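Lab notebook: predicted structure, single chain.

Context: the supervisor wants predicted structures on file for every construct in the current expression panel, including those that have not yet been purified. This is the next one on the list. No modifications to the sequence; it matches the entry in the shared construct table.
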Amino acid sequence: MLVVIAIIAVLVSLLFPAYRRARESAYLVWCMNNLGQLSKSWTVYTQDHSGRLVNAATGVNPLTPELEAGWVLPGNSRDSVIQGPFYPWVPSLEIFHCPKDETGHFRSYSISDYLNGGEYTEGREVRTVNPIAQPAQAILMMEENDPRGYNMNGWCVPPRQTQRFNKTQWVDPAVWWHFEGATLSFVDGHVEHWVWTDPRTYAVVFFMDTPENADIARIKEAIEPLRALLKP
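Prediction complete. Output recorded below exactly as produced.
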């Protein structure tokens, strides 16, 4: 009997890592599919509004009160999504949540603040899709874990040195829910999984400065296609 138990224990120790990796891979595919569907919905919304981008903020941005309400409403609830102006273009409520998001947030994804967001862009965001010349290289959506109770407004890092931010400074932190990385979608609709390489990325908090961090440099490069479109 002890021999049988020992054999079973060995088999479990060999199989469990493979099972765990398969499960994590399934979660990653699920999340990427969510982002893919949200990105397609964003594209259709844009087409239905003559190229006008949905507001990336949550609720009404006090810096741009003349714009329409954000794609979702403020708060961490089902109604904050369903009652937002973007929801009629979405095929399913479930695609707003990543299966690996254990933060308690109802919505796991945010739109880039530079795509009609405006919270930290100082009025220098892109508001129509037509001038975006490199859509396959420009970040559209990203997973987020905002500690303020829900993912508030757009996800943002400044694409270059400004009077307000250093070129190596974060605004919003990144998550690492999938094999030490996160999922992102791009304006053309495709989705990627990025694995972070700098250990500091896992500990980033709001406005943290991490010089020579390859992860934030990579993110900024994926915002670069929008930089030339921003107002001076």
